[in-house]
Amino acid sequence: MSLITHGDNASKTDRKDAFCIWDLLRQGKYFTPVERDPEHAAAYRIIRHYEDSRKRSDEIRNQLRGTLALAFPELNERFQDLTGKTALSFLEKNPTPSKIKALGPQRFLLRWKGRRGPMGRKYFEDLYELAKTSIGIEDPTGRLALEIQTQAGEFRHALEAQQRWFEMAEELLEPRPDYQFVRTIPGIGRKLAVGLLACVAQPVDFRCGKQWVKLAGLDIRFFKSGDSTHKQPRISRQGQGLLRVWLYFGALNVIKYEGPFRDLYERRLKSSPGRGAKARALMAVADKLVRVIFAVVRDQRPYDSRQDQRTAERYAAPRRAA
Q1: Do 237 and 219 touch, CB atoms closer than 8 A?
Q2: Are 244 and 216 in contact (CB under 8 A)?
Q3: Which residues sit opposite 6 in a β-bridge?
Q4: Which of 69-78, 172-181, 226-235 has the lowest mean pLDDT?
Q5: 0.85 exceeded by pTM
Q6: Which end of the chain is more exposed for a tag (fewer CB within 10 A), N or C?
Q7: Are the beta carbons of 53 and 71 closer than 8 angstroms?
């Protein structure tokens, strides 16, 4: 790479900078334009709509929790999961203690007659007693009740939209062989497979899995300004944030299963202890996960955990020989 000159003076791009650029290109540490076929591109657009719906549903759920803390705080402890049909139906019909007490015990229990399992008659009897002794603020105008009902309805619609977006993306990706191969990785279910495949690019346009690592913004960088350097290297975050989010959730799932991913997670916890150890270990697992996905999609083969052992032995052989 020749030097760029302006008149008689050399520019700031000297031999050292040219060597660094060449070395980055040699290692494949550069952004490659992301190309997708029409179905893949449609799935990527849809999964972005799904992510927007998920964020919206989380926002509404937090608002609903806050309103319940005012009107019926005891219900927040009982309804740990607000996404259930019974929980949302209850909030839409009986949003405040005053509404429940106005029905009386017989009419209230009759409304929920026929429920089975954990939410049987005894469960609703306890809810009625909670309403009688609730410390929630009074709602003489009914505004709090209306607020809870509106938020519960919005939350239901957001969850339904989220599910529809996911089903549309899955319908596009499920017939593809890539989807079936990624599903063979322990811990990668339907939702993670759809989200990850929608965000990645065509492997034929990339030389190695490290380029997908960079695409996700998980490549390690040392941040330096003048004479100051951060003590710990950090991920660059210069990539697709959505892919990075899906890889984070994927890393949380794969470490639940015995195998190379959990082994890597435990090794990194021991080798890099202290503050932020779990986050660093998860990022290492996410790095490995995206490279594994690249390999199974490129080679069109199911995941084989024994390949990790063979790769480790191949790299360890020169060190033992030395």
Answers
A1: no
A2: yes
A3: 9
A4: 226-235
A5: no
A6: C
A7: no
Average pLDDT over residues 211-226: 74
Read off the pLDDT of residues 40-59 as tens digits, 9 standing for 90 and up. Answer: 889 999 999 999 999 999 99
Q: What is the pLDDT of residue 2?
A: 41
Does residue 10 sit in helix, strand or coil?
Answer: strand
Residue 259 CA to its chain's centroid (Å): 21
Selection from 311, 308, 318, 310 nearest residue 285 by Cα: 308
Tell me whether strands 5-6 and 9-10 are parallel, antiparallel or unpaired.
antiparallel
Please give the Cα distance from 124 to 210 (Å, whole number). 55
pLDDT in tens, 167-179: 999 999 999 888 9
First to last CA, the chain: 35
DSSP state, residue 204: G
DSSP 83-145: TSHHHHHHHHH--SHHHHHHHHHHHHHHHTTT--GGGSHHHHHHHHHHHHT--PPP-TTSHHH
Residue (of 290, 300, 293) closest to 214 by Cα position: 290
Mean predicted confidence (pLDDT) in 195-203: 82
What would you measure as the largest C-alpha separation in the chain, in angstroms? Answer: 96
Average pLDDT, whole number, for the chain?
83
Query: In whole angstroms, what is the distance from residue 282 CA to residue 250 CA?
Result: 10
Our measurement of the distance from residue 220's CA atom to the centroid of its chain's CA atoms, rounded to an integer in Å, reads: 20
Map tokens 């811990």 to a residue.
187
In this structure, the number of other CB atoms found within 10 A of the CB of residue 14 comes to: 11
Handedness of CA 115, 116, 122, 124 (dihedral sign): negative
Where are the chain's structural domains? 50-168, 176-221+233-315
Alpha helices in the chain (DSSP H): 15-27, 38-71, 73-78, 85-93, 97-111, 121-132, 143-173, 177-182, 190-199, 209-215, 241-254, 260-271, 277-299, 306-321
Topology (CATH level 3) of domain 50-168: Helix Hairpins (1.10.287)
